[in-house]
Amino acid sequence: MNAAIVTVGDELLVGDTENTNATWLCGRLADRGVPVRRVTVVPDEVAEIARVVNEYHAEYDAVIVTGGLGPTHDDVTMEAVAAAFGREVVENEEAAAWLEERGYSADDLAAETTHLPADCRPLPNDEGVAPGAVVESAYVLPGVPAEMRAMFERVAAEFDGVPSHAVVVAVDEPESTLIGRFAELRERFDVSVGSYPGESVRVKITASDAAEAERAAAWLRERADLVE
């Protein structure tokens, strides 16, 4: 299984808000062994959201869309996702009933709050009001981080992959001097290697087999100057 993440919001594109939702989702999906192939930020525009969701739905097993849920003028994500799948946005009785159980009557909410793509699976919002939805392989979640995280945990079991094991080796050498050892490391072991320079170089060795990752890390430690 693989996935793509689409984060919606003009505030992300102008730098007013940090895209912590994408970072968190990537981490949770990695924990479940699901590789994320794309992370895309799109504006609050129906056509642009629909185009990207439609494209990613065709390419990847699952698409997670966050942001733009609710009744205000810039909350257009549900309309856009519905358009991507050729559906109407309609009143969802299940979502309305769930909100009523929480003490919200129709008079308390804007009418659009419970309008979701036709024939979707609504997702309750345990930390807020605006419901999410699952439309085929697209999971539509809120943009408020606490709401998004709680709603994702409701569906986390539906994201199932092959977990990998990672070992990080901190090396006290310039990254350029490690190129040959990285090549040999990849030849000797069935691993992927990531190199992240900073005050030191963080070498992340990842493998589907934990023992293989550990053997590769041990090999590198014997052949590199390590951070003390």
Strand count: 11
Structure annotation, total helices = 8
Output the CATH topology of the largest domain: Molybdenum Cofactor Biosythetic Enzyme, Chain A
Query: In the CATH hierarchy, what is the class of the largest domain?
Result: Alpha Beta
Characterize the biggest β-sheet: 6 strands, mixed
Molecular structure report:
The protein is an alpha/beta fold and 228 residues long. The chain has two domains: 3-158, 3-Layer(aba) Sandwich (Molybdenum Cofactor Biosythetic Enzyme, Chain A), CATH 3.40.980; 165-222. It is built from eight helices and eleven strands. The protein has helices at 10-13, 20-31, 46-59, 77-84, 93-101, 145-155, 179-188, 210-221, and strands at residues 3-8, 36-42, 62-66, 89-91, 115-117, 121-123, 132-135, 138-141, 165-171, 192-197, 201-207. The strands form three sheets. It has a six-stranded mixed β-sheet, with helices on both faces. The chain has a three-stranded antiparallel β-sheet with strand order 9-11-10. Helix 3 (46-59) crosses helix 4. The longest helix has 14 residues, at 46-59. It is elongated, with a radius of gyration of 22 Å. It starts with a strand and ends in a 7-residue tail after the last helix. The model has no long low-confidence stretch (mean pLDDT 95). It comes from Halorubrum aquaticum. This is Molybdenum cofactor synthesis domain-containing protein. InterPro entries: CinA, MoaB/Mog-like_dom_sf, MoaB/Mog_dom.
